[in-house]
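Listing S7. Sequence submitted for prediction.
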Amino acid sequence: MPALSVLSGDCRAVTGKSQARADRLAVDIGGTFTDVVLETGAERFSTKVLTTHQAPEKGALEGIDRLLQEAGRNAADIGLLIHGTTLATNALIERKGARTALITSEGFRDILEMGFEKRFAQYHLNARPPAPLVPRQLRLEVAERISAEGHIVTALDEAQLVRLAGELKAAGVEAVAVGFLHAYAHAQHEKRAAEILAAELPEATICLSSEICPEIREYERFSTTVANAYIRPLMSGYLGRLKEQLASGGFTCPTYLMMSGGGLTTLEQAARIPIRLVESGPAGGAILAADIARARGIDRALAFDMGGTTAKICLIDDGEPDRSRQFEVARSFRDMKGSGLPVRIPVIEMVEIGAGGGSIARIDAMGQIRVGPDSAGSDPGPVAYQRGGTAAAVTDANLVLGKIDPQDFAGGRIQLDATAAARTIAETIGQPLGLEGVWPAVGIAEIVEENMANAARVHAIERGKQSSEYVMIAFGGGAPLHAARLAEKLGIDQVIVPVGAGVGSAIGFLRAPVSFQLVRSWRVFLDSNRLAEMNSLLEEMTGEATRTVRQGAGEEALHISRQLELRYSGQGHELPVSLPDRPLKADDLAAIRTAFESLYEKVYGLTMPELEIECISWSVTASNQPEQPVSIDRAHRHNRPDPQGTRAAYDAATGGLCEHDLYQRSQLAVGDHLSGPAIIAEAETSTLIPSGFTMQIDQGGALVLTRNPREAS
């Protein structure tokens, strides 16, 4: 769909001004839909196609071909392609990765099952930790030991390693993770083991913990390395096929992958460390929301991304999303912390729950409506898709409630069967509960919205924040349908629905910098008089990160950020302090101590100056510098457009069906304003404006929904 005229000048090249060709493509493969966006000059074209799970590249290429034809462009016109995918995440959740083995130091075979040695749900007898990706018979020990100081205590038994390789070959192992005890600091045994294994198992993927996650704490390091080995054959095969098919289609442009930390990396680097892609799609959405917040001078924004399979919520303060270097994949027990597989990767911190358009509704043993976390996905999809689905989903409920036009779903490319959706909801939800009419569908919608609201509240409270103090930015195919009601539940007064909201994450890909983060663990006391070694480590890391980014950003100026995690001696958790982008001086060490103690007092309420401070993990991030968003102001009201019709839809404010004015977003202009109840439709989504809300289009073309003061009180 062509972009609104207000988008002129908003399409920015993220890989530098040297980019010769302006046309750029972004592809986001989700659990239900594959979103494709083409930006050419000041115009944007976008489409949604159902994800083809057996061959994800098929749906992506179908969407690309469709947009090129619509825009009158061809492969040779494309100067950049950016890709994000849930393939890595799904492989871990569904346990569909490679047959993987772990070779570790003698005595550490069971570290993947021992984990943190604590229960994540202390009082729940049925709570079980996730099964390791590597079964015990494929976790093998080899005699070796290097001390934490680097002394070889036990030499690597190479003959034993050769015998173990023979066992792995007989077992049909496709990938091998190597994790030795102190390899994060002293990697020589791991590197020698890799040479031997490569000779004995030439067809197998080999991943070293010293390369994938060179940090202390062996459980997270081993878990991350195993997860990377588990998905690397799948991801490298997929990315290789995608590269070949793009080349055969005439694409000669660079291809970048979106990483979970919000930066872009080369296809080759992504194939080597695919574990960094596990949250690539949601990260794009957070980048978009941060861009929108900065452009509008919003200090506190809550990004709400709801697609076909999941909903994601991320807090953005001062134009930057929360970030972390630890994450759990595939939580298996009620989405509880501790019930997933821990990985140590740079990630934009968000909460993700099974609440999407395809989330399945059912009645539990206590006679209550439950929604998700399982999803109907794209195959068979919700009942209304007419693709064989038999379980009622959130999309079915929204259709019954009149929020979706069955003839204009996904740009009219998917015809929905409202009768089948209503019948299934009545049979599976209404009859068991004695509910008639629209009330079973109302129950489904209210439950999924309350699930999302509760997740947002907890996510904010865990960070000492209040969700009601934020402005919501809603995007994804499902978010604009639920954003206003979710805002009411959270006490949020303003909701922004940007242009292209239905494909928001893909648009976010085009706003991301090319970046790479390196982390190294080196334990040293801050006052140990080892300044030269500290600078040597930082210089080496900066050089490696810079070389990686140069593969995608060329010779343009790079931004370097450096950080150090410290703790009081003997403690088990660290706090981060920023470092200057230059060699450290003696005076800097005192400044680092002051910054650490100030942060420690803010977090814990005290300091302990009598204790020594340990430096634990050092990180360097290199990135290019995308152009800053153009400042966008609230437009003056100048027109109240006439509706193009009405449709009966459920309005929570009045507690029943009522007529909603209908508008096409493409027919609205900057400054237009209206009052709910209303529905604003576009190709990839629809925005529901309930009673008690007004809407105005700002200078950037975004829909700004505001709760009336009486409603907000």
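Caption to Listing S7: primary sequence and predicted structure tokens for the chain studied. The longest strand covers residues 613-624. Confidence is low (pLDDT under 50) at residues 1-21.
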